[in-house]
Specification:
Number of strands: 4
Shape: rod-shaped
Radius of gyration: 48 Å
Helix content: over 70%
Number of helices: 5
Distance between the termini: 103 Å
Oligomer: single chain
Length: 211
């Protein structure tokens, strides 16, 4: 009887140990699975964060490149405007220096002589007051009496050099003022200026790449 009790106690103890071991194994397995899940989740989050960081860096770089290009375009436009303004000023000065009183008298004499004498409408020439005073006598003396009758010289405060001429009594006119001639020349030189600036920036770009 005592032996049976001892065997029963031993069996209970063995079953309890095995149950505890099984429970420990279950707990360890569950903990390992949870740890793996946490690690995998952390890896996924880390990859997402890395991808977001890369995207942000790419956006920042793209924005910086765009800003740099825009700054370059703005600088080029500003430089072009300054050069055009300087060029226009130089052209205007050259035109004014070329259209002195003597030159104006010769040009007007030739233009007026080419018109038919005795036309119904008079030829009206508008000039700067200082130029009119200098060329009036010389110009009139170079024209025939018949042509002189159809000529009217008018001082204009809006003209600083050159002249404006009308062959129909002022209804229409041809503008040969210094400003009009300078504007005309500037327009034709702008395309050449743009080409030179473009070539200059292209060469600068090639030089930077080679370096």
């Amino acid at each position: 009887m005592a032996e049976n009790i001892k065997g029963l106690i031993a069996k209970i103890q063995q079953e309890g140990i095995e149950a505890a071991q099984d429970k420990a194994r279950d707990i360890a397995s569950q903990a390992e699975a949870e740890a793996k899940a946490v690690i995998n989740q952390a890896k996924v989050q880390a990859e997402v964060m890395v991808d977001q960081a890369k995207a942000e860096i790419a956006r920042t770089q793209k924005s910086a490149d765009a800003s740099l290009k825009q700054a370059g375009r703005d600088l080029l436009l500003s430089l072009r405007e300054e050069i055009e303004l300087m060029l226009k000023g130089l052209i205007l000065k050259q035109v004014r220096d070329s259209l002195d009183a003597s030159e104006l008298k010769d040009i007007l004499s030739k233009l007026i002589k080419q018109t038919s004498a005795g036309e119904k409408d008079e030829v009206v020439v508008s000039l700067a007051e200082r130029d009119l005073a200098k060329i009036e006598k010389g110009l009139i003396s170079n024209l025939s009496a018949e042509v002189k009758k159809g000529i009217k010289l008018v001082p204009s405060g809006e003209i600083s050099g050159g002249f404006i001429i009308s062959y129909d009594g002022g209804k229409s006119h041809f503008d040969f003022s210094d400003k009009a001639i300078a504007e005309y020349l500037s327009i034709h030189l702008k395309s050449k200026l743009g080409q030179l600036l473009q070539e200059g920036t292209s060469e600068t770009g090639k030089s930077k790449k080679s370096n």
